[in-house]
Amino acid sequence: QVQVVESGGGLVQAGGSLSLSCTASGLTFDRHAVGWFRQAPGKEREGISCSRAGSSIYYLDSVSRFTISRDNARNSVYLQMNSLKPEDTAMYYCAARPGLCTSQTGAYVYWGQGTQVNVSS
Description:
Largest sheet: 7 strands, mixed
Helix content: under 10%
């Protein structure tokens, strides 16, 4: 049984930082692409970044503020978010899929429940 669990969300003031964690179990972690996504109220879920086999891809213009990292020994992927803005407020999700990274949410097989990030102005 595959489980994906996110943590690290919370309330932060604009300009602050948060570090999100994603841990997956029940799968061959190093053979899976793991992506971070977010969904704000009333908006579609969008891809932020993805990590696979030592490489990272960023899908948002916020690439300069967010950094993805991965620790295969811990079956974990992290998202460091700096200089947060109110428009970053959203539910943040982690998802995994066998194979390569993609920003297409429908391509991911395993999803976590999400962690809420709120950025106050």
